[in-house]
DNA sequence: CCCTGATTCGC
DNA sequence: GCGAATCAGG
């Protein structure tokens, strides 16, 4: 494999987005993370500058003109619950007051309106797994989660990043809705505790039932 | 041990 | 220019 313009472009974009070298290598295929890092250095962009905030909202982002952080490991599970708009998220201040009072919503396959804003921040992707019913989870894992949810960071939609647990808590239709936000596991969308309830080995599932 | 980026240096 | 090997660190 060689560094075609296209591949370099992808490299630049992903590096700018704060993706790790190995993630980029995986995406590109045919290269190792070493190759990616080497290229990054040769391109002179080893300093992760000129990129959008890799750090979450609480950071010292110059409030001037912050584009809404694009979430790229999407949380698509909340398929268009009408109530679940972005209100509860960080009030990043509206770019445009929307001159026309009438907002023309696009419709999805089911004829459900999709706000353009929502589509922008929640691209398609792996859906969240359904919340498992309580009796399907090991008591230990459940207890762990309950504990974790007390100490969770309770972040909003906009604060989600690659590195934050995206486990949703509460009812999206409620102001009490938030995401766990603790550090996520390597390559997983959730923190350790939530990985525990989200991904269960087949064997343990089988063992538990019956 | 998993991972991260940084550097070196033979190709 | 490329990237494997290595280093240094979390």
TrEMBL record:
Name of the protein described by the UniProt record: GcrA cell cycle regulator
Species whose genome carries this gene: Loktanella salsilacus
Region (Disordered): 75-100
Database matches in InterPro entries: GcrA (IPR011681)
């Amino acid at each position: 494999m060689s560094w075609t313009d296209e591949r370099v472009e992808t490299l630049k974009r992903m590096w700018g987005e704060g993706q790790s070298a190995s993630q980029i290598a995986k995406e590109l295929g045919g290269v190792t993370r070493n190759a990616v890092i080497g290229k990054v250095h040769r391109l002179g962009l080893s300093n992760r500058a000129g990129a959008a905030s890799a750090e979450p909202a609480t950071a010292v982002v110059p409030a001037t003109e912050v584009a809404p952080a694009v979430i790229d490991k999407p949380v698509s599970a909340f398929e268009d619950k009408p109530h679940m708009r972005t209100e509860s998220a960080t009030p990043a201040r509206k770019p445009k007051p929307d001159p026309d009072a009438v907002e023309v919503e696009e419709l999805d396959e089911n004829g459900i309106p999709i706000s353009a804003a929502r589509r922008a921040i929640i691209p398609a992707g792996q859906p969240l797994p359904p919340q498992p019913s309580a009796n399907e989870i090991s008591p230990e894992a459940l207890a762990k989660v309950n504990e974790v949810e007390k100490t969770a960071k309770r972040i909003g939609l906009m604060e989600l990043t690659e590195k934050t647990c995206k486990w949703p808590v509460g009812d999206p239709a409620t102001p009490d809705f938030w995401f766990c936000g603790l550090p996520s596991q390597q390559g997983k969308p959730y923190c350790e505790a939530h990985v525990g309830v989200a991904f269960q080995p087949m064997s343990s599932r089988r063992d538990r039932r019956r």
